[in-house]
């Protein structure tokens, strides 16, 4: 099967790029924690150099989040072994840094007059990857490897809810956050890591009350309740119909169409885990979650692009090659060791996601005539170069409403839990 080389052809058409330039971010938030954290975010961004590009802030936070999670995974790859307490503390710190930097990138864009649709897409793209690692790290801290079905449910619940948040945005044209949403979920997971760091990961296996009820039931039940509430709202939006013609999506497509790519990821993941003769998920839980997580991140990014460009979403994707090979291998009685295909899926899915995102960012940068990680800066004036400011003012269409009442804060939260 020939490799898909993105650089030889454009991913975004001229019409999609034109629609992207016209895109205006619409957001509604009723978060409980966001107003309380505004003073911290405002102080933090005031200490940020004006030459530091908003997207660079975002990617640095993501890298720290991933690295701290990978350290945790190295000590407990299946969530069974109790990782050292310091690794849990490190994950808490990594997530806090990511959350803080992810919350000031928009404020930095406003300060430097460099808001653009690319900022929204880049932020959502980083969040789609972060969701996988944040969910997995929380499960390892809670020692859910002792209960593989729960570990599977918790991680794929987070991945699916993230996707569904963008599904309802694709339908309604507006990203909506409830009172208990992404910020609250992130700080809850930080709290889980801190408890594991102070009392030890084994603390979550402590039995309480009558029967075999353990402390990890608390976070698990909370996820179920919040997930059901989020899904109820998402499907109420979908049922009510979209803003497009005859109740369709922003692209004029069926409101149910985004369910197909999600099903092509979650359903094979469930079937392969349950039918594996080598107990693939149980024995290699972290690799399994990361491999399918990269596929889910790819289709989520395509959904975000479809929304921002008001275009139809493609159902099939090269990232699905990995799940397809695992599925076919099981069908033919595992002629290839499953772990080989799982590692291939992780490597293939990761490089496919990175190449796709890189090419999309490159095309948007060329179209808007902006840089991804750099702001031409005039130290004497203390502001970005006039040429950049001019381009940015023309493409300042991706700005979102600031959580404290502003109108050009480029903060895009997207993970309801």
TrEMBL record:
Disordered, as annotated region: 386-417
Entry's localization field: Membrane
Entry keywords, A to Z: Lipid biosynthesis, Lipid metabolism, Membrane, Phospholipid biosynthesis, Phospholipid metabolism, Transferase, Transmembrane, Transmembrane helix
Transmembrane portions of the chain: 50-75, 150-170, 185-204, 216-235, 255-273, 285-308, 328-348
GO terms of molecular function: diacylglycerol cholinephosphotransferase activity; ethanolaminephosphotransferase activity
Catalytic reaction(s) noted: CDP-choline + a 1,2-diacyl-sn-glycerol = a 1,2-diacyl-sn-glycero-3-phosphocholine + CMP + H(+); 1,2-dioctanoyl-sn-glycerol + CDP-choline = 1,2-dioctanoyl-sn-glycero-3-phosphocholine + CMP + H(+); 1-hexadecanoyl-2-(4Z,7Z,10Z,13Z,16Z,19Z-docosahexaenoyl)-sn-glycerol + CDP-choline = 1-hexadecanoyl-2-(4Z,7Z,10Z,13Z,16Z,19Z-docosahexaenoyl)-sn-glycero-3-phosphocholine + CMP + H(+); 1-hexadecanoyl-2-(9Z-octadecenoyl)-sn-glycerol + CDP-choline = 1-hexadecanoyl-2-(9Z-octadecenoyl)-sn-glycero-3-phosphocholine + CMP + H(+)
Basic residues composition-biased segments: 408-417
Gene Ontology terms describing biological process: phosphatidylethanolamine biosynthetic process
Positions with biased composition (Polar residues): 389-407
Xref: InterPro entries: CDP-OH_P_trans (IPR000462), CDP-OH_PTrfase_TM_dom (IPR043130), CDP_ALCOHOL_P_TRANSF_CS (IPR048254), CHOPT (IPR014472)
Its membrane topology: Multi-pass membrane protein
Coiled coil: none
Enzyme Commission (EC) number: 2.7.8.2
Keyword Ribonucleoprotein: no
Pathway: Phospholipid metabolism; phosphatidylcholine biosynthesis; phosphatidylcholine from phosphocholine: step 2/2
Enzyme class: transferase
One cellular component term from this protein's GO annotations in UniProt: endoplasmic reticulum membrane
Sequence similarity: Belongs to the CDP-alcohol phosphatidyltransferase class-I family.
The protein's name: diacylglycerol cholinephosphotransferase
Organism encoding this protein: Drosophila pseudoobscura pseudoobscura
Record gene name: bbc
